């Protein structure tokens, strides 16, 4: 699921990508600038057209007034009184001075009116503003087309420009995912580039990986050193315990020594798994027989079911270790009945207890997490998971719908059918 989400996030059509967010921000900024410039140009052009219209109307009104004063005759074709804006008439009568009025009651035929009160009569003229308004509309359309053309160029360029930091961020994200998956040698190696916030994030992640690697190596060395240092006094304890006279106290001492010896062996195995020193000795094995023998060696009560005669390519010794640890963990932390089912190349070990704790299901097996308020799993499941990785198997942990812990081991099928000797 995480890989699928990562692939979708890297897709060119992922609209939640930073690349497209930057492009959208640039587009919004361009639209805002275009809108502001368009409104400003529109208003300035409109104001200029109004000034020119008023000047033309004033010039024509001067001719009409001069003719009226010389001849006493009104214009030959005066506008109808119903067409004259009432507000213009009222203003001309009240002030007695030259007045103009832009008449946009009919947007398809706009007029600029001019009026003046002469000898108690209001003389009026009108100038056609249609060409100016149509020119203004044409200007608006051209500005919209130019803005769209600019956006068509700027948005792809912004997306391309955003691809460089976006690619660097994806590289940092890939490095972080590799580190989260356990590859502590992964580095983004961008410390000397850019000097920006992405470089700082990259350097921080690389530094974190160095710190995690050093701490993990230190813990691995400490675990291996402790286990090796304990082997010598432990062997002395084993020999000494065997020399004790029979008795209840001796049995108790020998039992504790066996537990301590098993713990030291587990620590050594964990240290080898952590160091990557384990190598699988693969060969074709009959899965049902191997599981049956492993269950028998535990000497625990188990219901075993084998379906078919599957043959797998694996290391039988490591597979035995995994089965033994899973069965032992089921008896130790679960409740009977413990069931082991072999179906094809899949092995399912389940109990009928309270199930795995949420921390294990979320994070996987963690060494020494035992006891406390929730059930633990110690080294057994951690070793089983490590050995499963060595043999190339998939070990998953879940809780059964009807209750109980369930561990599922999936192995690789052997390509050529293996047949036991008759």
From TrEMBL:
The keyword Transit peptide does not apply. Residues 225-415 form the Histidine kinase domain. Keywords: Kinase, Membrane, Phosphoprotein, Transferase, Transmembrane, Transmembrane helix, Two-component regulatory system. SMART domains: HAMP, HATPase_c, HisKA. It is an enzyme of class 2 (transferase). It is found in: Cell membrane. Its EC number is 2.7.13.3. The keyword Phosphoprotein applies. GO terms for molecular function: kinase activity. Residues 167-217 form the HAMP domain. InterPro entries: HAMP_dom, HATPase_C_sf, HATPase_dom, His_kinase_dom, HisK_dim/P_dom, HisK_dim/P_sf, TCS_sensor_his_kinase. Its main location: membrane. The chain crosses the membrane at residues 20-41. It catalyses: ATP + protein L-histidine = ADP + protein N-phospho-L-histidine. This is histidine kinase.
């Amino acid at each position: 699921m995480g890989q699928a989400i990562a692939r979708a996030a890297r897709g060119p059509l992922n609209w939640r990508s930073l690349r497209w967010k930057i492009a959208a921000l640039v587009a919004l900024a361009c639209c805002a600038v275009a809108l502001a410039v368009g409104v400003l140009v529109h208003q300035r052009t409109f104001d200029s057209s109004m000034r020119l219209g008023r000047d033309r109307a004033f010039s024509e009104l001067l001719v009409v007034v001069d003719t009226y004063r010389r001849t006493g005759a009104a214009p030959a074709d005066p506008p109808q009184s119903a067409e004259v804006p009432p507000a213009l008439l009222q203003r001309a009568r009240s002030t007695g001075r030259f007045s103009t009025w832009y008449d946009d009651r009919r947007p398809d035929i706009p007029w600029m009116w001019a009026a003046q009160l002469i000898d108690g009569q209001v003389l009026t003229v009108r100038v056609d503003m249609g060409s100016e308004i149509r020119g203004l509309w044409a200007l608006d359309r051209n500005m919209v087309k130019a803005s769209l053309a600019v956006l068509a160029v700027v948005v792809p360029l912004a997306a391309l420009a955003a691809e460089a930091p976006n690619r660097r961020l994806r590289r940092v994200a890939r490095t972080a995912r590799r580190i989260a998956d356990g590859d502590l040698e992964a580095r983004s190696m961008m410390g000397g580039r850019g000097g920006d916030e992405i470089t700082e994030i990259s350097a921080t992640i690389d530094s974190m990986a160095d710190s995690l690697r050093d701490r993990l190596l230190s813990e691995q060395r400490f675990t291996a050193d402790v286990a090796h240092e304990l082997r010598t006094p432990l062997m002395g304890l084993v020999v000494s315990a065997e020399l004790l006279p029979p008795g209840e106290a001796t049995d108790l001492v020998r039992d504790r020594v066996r537990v301590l010896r098993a713990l030291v062996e587990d620590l050594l195995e964990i240290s080898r798994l952590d160091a990557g020193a384990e190598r699988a000795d693969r060969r074709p094995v009959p899965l049902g027989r191997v599981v049956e023998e492993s269950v028998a060696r535990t000497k625990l009560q188990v219901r075993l079911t084998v379906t078919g005669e599957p043959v797998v390519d694996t290391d039988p010794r490591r597979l035995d270790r995994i089965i033994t640890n899973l069965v032992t963990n089921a008896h130790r932390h679960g409740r009977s009945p413990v069931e082991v089912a072999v179906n094809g190349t899949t092995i399912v070990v389940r109990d009928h207890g309270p199930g795995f704790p949420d921390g294990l299901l979320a994070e996987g097996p963690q060494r020494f997490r035992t006891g406390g308020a929730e059930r633990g799993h110690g080294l057994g499941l951690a070793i089983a998971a490590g050995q499963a990785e060595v043999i190339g198997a998939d070990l998953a942990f879940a809780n059964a719908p009807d209750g109980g812990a369930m561990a599922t081991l999936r192995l690789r099928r052997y390509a050529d059918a293996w047949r036991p000797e008759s």
